[in-house]
Structure formats: structure tokens, C-alpha cells
Amino acid sequence: MPSLNRIRNHDNESDIRELFRVTRPEAPSVDVRQMTENNRKRPLEPDSPGVMDAQTPSMLLRLPVGKVASLSALAATILLATWLIGHIVQPKPTFARSSFLEVQKQLEQLKTVQFTMFTTYPDDSDSQKSPKKFRVKILGRNLQRCEVLGKPESFDLMDSTTGQLINVNTINKTFYIIKSRVSTNSQNGERVETKFEGRRGVDFYEELTQVRISDVTYRGVATVNGKSTERFEEQTVNGLTTWTRTTWVDSQSKLPVHIEIRVRSSEPGVKEFDMTQTDFVYDQWLDPVQFSVVPPEGYKVIEGKFYDPK
User: Fold this and answer.
1) What integer is the mean pLDDT of 129-154?
2) 68 and 164: one domain?
3) Could you tell me which residue, 210 or 10, shows the higher pLDDT?
4) Does residue 67 sit in the same domain as residue 100?
5) Do 9 and 142 belong together in one domain?
6) Residue 62 and residue 102 share a domain
7) Which helix (H) or strand (E) holds 129?
8) Single residue among 62, 89, 116 that ends a domain in this structure
9) Does one domain contain both 73 and 121?
10) Other CB atoms closer than 10 Å to residue 3's CB: what's the count?
11) Last residue of a domain, one of 73, 89, 105
């Protein structure tokens, strides 16, 4: 009888059958014509193999106990081999990994991205009723423009190659360059300043293309805005803080159509929030002038810092 290790090393059902054929004992050869001639010459007796009446036990019952046990073991092994063919020899592909890899490949090919973004806070009912919405526009991988919907006179620019964040106000004609961020250390409560540094791309690209595939979980299919989508989830736990992102991907284009980011924490100083990114538009032409990080003529240039709430 072949071992399970040998079964696992074979790739298909025919190989499994060949293992059993080669390793089981060969039955002795039988001359059928000679057997027929002998039976014709000899009258059948009640105990003969060719006769069975009501008092005659079946062939299986007449076998020795050891033979019956051997046949049962063989049948059980064949059933086990059949199960192994479906579950070990031919493992099912990891759908989440293969599908999200395709998403990352499609994102790498994009020239422009636009989407609407808003954030709500569990402890702020006003933000949940009427959240402030932004329209985010991304040119290439490094230039981003973020406008408050309905208020085009003020917008933010980001150049990920330098890490600089710029606020432009067309009414006051100010060009505010933010080079660092001041946040609160959750351990000792002290304020800490961190300078912005260059990165490979803006947050949208960095977070989706650099995520480890092993951290992505496939959550099934769903219909979003009339489109058939596949839902993926990734979760990171850092101490008392849990960060979860759910991405709904168009089944045809393999590009995101809706993203939700949820942060929950019991750690002091960490703000809980829910961020939504939706209404995606891909590869629509955008005017490069809208992404210029050079101060327009007549604008006052101010350098400052971004302060997180205490």
C-alpha cells in the first residue's frame, strides 16, 4: 500500500491510480476456457462457487476475518486518496492574493486619479451629519491637489518627492509652505516636531501598492453604485489601536470604486475616525498648471508648521 507522502507528491488522479496498481499484489492468472470446461463436466454442488441458495452465506461473509479487514482498509485508503486529490494534490488558489496583485498592477499603470474624500468622528455628531468633503486630484504618482467642495478659493498641494505640503488661498493671495508636523507624544505628552520627507508617491498610491499581500483578506462580492465588486480587507493592530481598511474593487477594471478606513483606539491621545474615499475617476486629463508648487506672482510666501490637535 502506498504511503500518504507518496500520494501527496503526485499531481493528478491518474498518478494516484498508478501508485495503487503498481504497489498492490498482482492476482494469479486464470484460464477462463479451462474453468468453463471443468464446470461443464462436473455437477454443481451446493457448496460450489457457482451455486448460492438461501442457506448459503455470501462470499464476503465466507471470507476469513483478516481478508474482510484488508478489503475494508483498502476501500478506506482509496477514499482517503480521493479526498487528497481534491484538497492536497490540487490545492485551491488563494483568491485574495491573486486578485489584489492584479489591483496593484492596474494602479501602477494609472496617469491620473480623482476621488471624493470625507472624514467623520465617532465623538462628533456634527461631522457625521454633514461631513466636510474634499475632491482629491492626483497627477502622476507625486503631485496631489485637494480642494474643499464648494470652496475652490482655497486648496492644498502636495509634492511627495519633497514631502512639502502647500496651502494656497486665492482670495488672500497667500502661499503657505508647510515643511514639518508638530504632534503630541502619547507616552509623555510632549510636543514633537517631525520634518516632512520625500516618498515614492502620495498616500493613495503608497498605501495600496505597498501593502503586503499576506495582510489582505478576501471578503466576497458586493454591488456598489450598480457595479459588481470584490471586497478586500486589511487590518493592523498597533498596541491599543486598530486600523482597518476595506476596499471595494470593480470586478472588470480591477480598480477601487470605494474605500473605507476605520481607526479605533483606547490609547490616550489617539483620535478615532472613519474616512471614506468614493466617486473615483481614472485617467481623465488634468491640467499640470493646477499642480504647480511654484508661488504665483504677487502671492505672499509663508513658511510654517502643521499642528496636530492636542
Assistant:
1) 92
2) no
3) 210
4) no
5) no
6) no
7) helix 125-129
8) 89
9) no
10) 10
11) 89
pTM: 0.66
Residue 234 confidence class, pLDDT cut points 50, 70, 90: very high
Residues 72, 150: one domain? Answer: no
Residue type, 310: K
Picking from 245, 241, 243, the residue whose alpha carbon sits closest to that of residue 268 is 241
What nine digits make up the cell of 224?
Answer: 456598489
**N-to-C CA span, the chain:** 72
Q: Which domain holds residue 14?
A: 4-89
- CA dist list (Å): 100 to 112, 177, 178, 205, 229: 20, 36, 35, 14, 12
Residue 119 vs residues 79, 213, 262: alpha-carbon distances, Å: 56, 26, 10
Report the alpha-carbon distance of residue 202 to residue 140 in Å, rounded: 9
Q: What is the CATH number of the domain that holds 240?
A: 2.50.20.10
Across the range 205-231, mean pLDDT stands at 90
All 3 cell numbers of residue 5? 507522502
Residue 245 CB contacts under 8 Å (≥ 6 apart), including other chains: 207, 233, 234, 235, 259, 260, 261, 262
Neighbouring C-beta atoms of residue 142, cutoff 10 Å: 18
Do the Cβ atoms of 242 and 81 come closer than 8 Å? no
4-33 per-position pLDDT tens digit: 343 334 444 444 344 334 444 444 444 545
| Residue 147: partners with Cβ closer than 8 Å, 6 or more residues away | 134, 135, 137, 154, 155
**Dihedral in degrees, nearest 10, Cα atoms 212, 216, 221, 227:** -40
Task: Verify that 131 and 272 share a domain, yes or no.
Answer: yes
Q: How far apart are CA 172 and CA 17, in angstroms?
A: 82
CB atoms within 10 A of CB 256: 23
Grouping H, G, I as helix, E, B as strand and the rest as coil, residue 89 is helix
- Provide the domain count of the chain: 2
Say if residue 177 is in the same domain as residue 48: no
